[in-house]
Amino acid sequence: MRWDLDQLRQFIATADSGSISAAARSLGKAQSAVSTAIALLEADLGVMLFDRSGHRARPTDAGRVLLLEARELLRQASELDQRALSLAAGDDARLALAFDEALPYMAISALVRELSDRFPHLELTLLNGTAAEVADYVAGRRADAAFHFDRGPAYAHCDQHHIGAVPQGVFVSSGHPLLEAGLAGRKALARHRQILMHADDMREQAYSPRVWRSDSFYSIADMVADGLGWAILPVNIAREESYPKSLRQLECPSLTLPPLPVRVLWRRGTRPGASARWVETRFSELLRSAG
């Protein structure tokens, strides 16, 4: 195989323009140079690429098939060039991100779309899980960074940075008795089962003597929607259009519910690359918009 990419460019230009002379003008080459390049390409490939019997250079059947291959090869060569330039400029070759499943979906979706536009040559891996699981992904080197709700002390193997917060509220099913009063106080809440977030390294405050626990906000939301109890949940879960079940928010003036803080984790001793730093900044902005 002795042909090169420049010959493929001249092949494509001739097919697109319909003549060797027009291709030569578009490429800024001598007509004889383009004619020679195509003749050498045909000799090397062992097929005639153009029917030269008329006034125009029309691709043969073989030429039309190989024209598709030539276009794809040039596209891949351009991708290689652009990726090399990106890497030479200090961009990351790969990035693996882990997201707490309970974080606002619309913010994550917008982030991924913008990431595609800003870093088109980045090889991206997205992982999802509970707050504890995504932290473990960083510890196990499956993820370069994890975004999750701050549910307790910092992890020994990670550095961290708080990037925002998500509002939370008290939620029940649409037919729950607590809805009848309109406003719910602590005494009323204590008469009904509370479903708590379970985390090994911290304990949620229980307002009821009867509790169930789960390590997933979505699992808790399912149980609440099924009328099995009430829970304090991130507001975005109840308002998410894709969530199939109905949840109702209670007014509880006696409870002070600060927004749930969100943090980013990365392995201690590593330095986030350009794309990871951009993700952290942009996701923080999107969380503020979502709130």
Automatic annotation (TrEMBL):
It comes from Castellaniella hirudinis. This is LysR family transcriptional regulator. Gene3D superfamilies: 3.40.190.290, Winged helix-like DNA-binding domain superfamily/Winged helix DNA-binding domain. The keyword Transcription applies. Belongs to the LysR transcriptional regulatory family. Keywords: DNA-binding, Transcription, Transcription regulation. Residues 3-60 form the HTH lysR-type domain. Pfam families: HTH_1, LysR_substrate. It comes from the Bacteria.
